[in-house]
Design a protein that fits this description.
6 strands; about 70% helix; flat; mainly alpha; two-stranded antiparallel sheet; single chain
């Protein structure tokens, strides 16, 4: 009897010990899971990531597309056409309207072109930065959207100010209250940027650090692509309208003719990033661009309005576009190669040809715009495919957003500016005079005496008796 009681009590003790061990194991597992969960949460940078929002990013539902968009009236008129021809008509109509707008802006002169460039720049920045907001899904964070636009304004103040100081500095210096802005322009710009940098650091929020820094980088890349390129466009305009109009027109011509040749004759795919691009369109657009650029250059070289740089005239007391066209825009005789001369003289034809030197430079511009320029579009296509969007926006029916139309223009603007500084530009007396006029009157007088003494010592100037 007593032995049976011992056995029962021993079994109860073992049962209780087993239950205790199980409970301890369960609590241990639960603690381990909680610890692992806390560790995972500490590694997650955003609350959005806790809900499994990972993998490829699809923004097709949040970024509007304009390629297939058309005004309701036009949509009803074309509803019986196949989709391919409907898109072709819509695209053609709005291409024509954009061409008319472009001609009107050119007629408005340099100021109208500067304002248009600024508007296009702001819209392109907005389209790029909106994609960034959609990618990183940051909502309600303090200051962040405002900071993006603050950096845009600061960048524009610096770059546009650089242009104004370079070309309008003499005029601005004659206005007392603006002279400080010219003298300390870069310092003021740096202070403005530092202010934005400090505000960004103060706006950082726990668990959003990675996304905030990513969007900060996104903003600066957008500024690099958009603002700096528009600054180069402005510099090209001030070198003479022909350095802006001809390259821009080449890109437009290449885009249109590549589309037309690809639409009617395209069969061979060109690049996987843009399945609709074909070799037939690429080659047809390139040949058309070379011919178009050569003809357009010949026409524009005959008008001083297009070829004269924008400079300050001391005589007129204002900025002017009147000048005597330089050697680049005056007809020059070029002797043809020997193997052609014998053939031509046989038929009584001249062995030389008269051309504007700029026409030869236009060949370089047209080759770049037709061979390298399209890669700006391919780059944009790859960017859009990365986020599964068709267009940057829906501002222009049949085309998409503003960035969809200007993706190649920015690359072209950089090339033109580099080309001018490498092969065209030289220091002229007018440019040097502009720099001299920045000096104070006593400094100008000192420079005059130094220059006079130097010329007399080299017997270039006869000393006064």
């Amino acid at each position: 009897m007593s032995e049976e009681l011992r056995r029962r009590s021993s079994g109860a003790a073992e049962s209780e010990t087993g239950e205790t061990n199980k409970l301890g194991t369960a609590e241990s597992n639960s603690s381990r899971e909680n610890l692992q969960s806390n560790l995972r949460d500490s590694e997650i940078d955003s609350e959005d990531d806790k809900f499994g929002r990972k993998g490829s990013i699809d923004l097709s539902g949040s970024i509007p597309s304009g390629t297939d968009k058309a005004p309701s009236v036009l949509d009803q008129m074309l509803q019986d056409l196949p989709d391919k021809w409907r898109n072709w008509v819509v695209r053609g109509i709005f291409s024509f309207l954009m061409l008319i707008f472009f001609l009107v802006v050119i007629y408005g002169g340099p100021l109208a072109l500067m304002i248009t460039t600024l508007v296009v720049q702001v819209k392109c920045f907005q389209e790029i930065i909106n994609i960034g907001y959609s990618v990183y899904r940051i909502h309600g964070l303090p200051w962040f959207r405002s900071l993006s636009w603050y950096f845009l304004i600061t960048s524009n103040y610096f770059f546009y100010g650089e242009s104004l100081v370079e070309y309008f500095g003499v005029v601005i210096n004659r206005t007392d209250f603006l002279r400080v802005l010219v003298t300390y322009h870069r310092f003021i710009s740096f202070c403005l940027y530092c202010g934005g940098f400090v505000l960004f650091v103060l706006s950082l929020v726990k668990k959003y650090y990675m996304k905030q820094f990513s969007l900060f980088a996104w903003t600066h890349v957008a500024l690099l692509i958009v603002v700096t390129q528009s600054y180069l466009i402005i510099k090209n305009i001030f070198e003479g309208l022909i350095w802006f109009i001809v390259p821009v027109s080449m890109i437009i011509c290449n885009d249109i003719m590549a589309y037309v040749f690809g639409f009617f004759f395209g069969k061979t795919p060109l690049i996987k990033l843009s399945p609709k691009k074909t070799w037939e369109g690429f080659i047809g657009g390139g040949v058309s661009t070379v011919v178009f650029g050569f003809i357009m250059s010949y026409v524009m070289c005959q008008y001083s309005y297009f070829v004269c740089p924008i400079e300050y005239s001391e005589t007129l007391g204002r900025m002017t576009m009147e000048c005597e066209p330089g050697p680049l825009f005056r007809p020059t005789n070029y002797k043809l190669p020997e193997f052609m001369c014998g053939f031509l003289t046989t038929f009584g034809l001249p062995d030389s040809v008269s051309l504007y030197p700029f026409m030869l430079h236009s060949l370089s511009l047209s080759i770049f715009s037709s061979v390298i320029g399209p890669f700006g579009g391919f780059f944009a296509s790859g960017f859009k495919r990365a986020f599964k969007i068709k267009d940057f926006g829906d501002v222009i029916p049949g085309h998409g957003g503003i960035m969809d139309r200007f993706d190649c223009q920015f690359l072209m603007a950089t090339f033109v500016n580099v080309y001018i500084s490498s092969f065209i530009k030289w220091d002229s007396p007018q440019k040097l005079l502009t720099q001299v006029l920045y000096l104070k009157p006593e400094q100008q007088l000192q420079l005059f005496h130094m220059l006079k003494e130097n010329l007399e010592n080299r017997n270039i100037l006869t000393p006064e008796v």
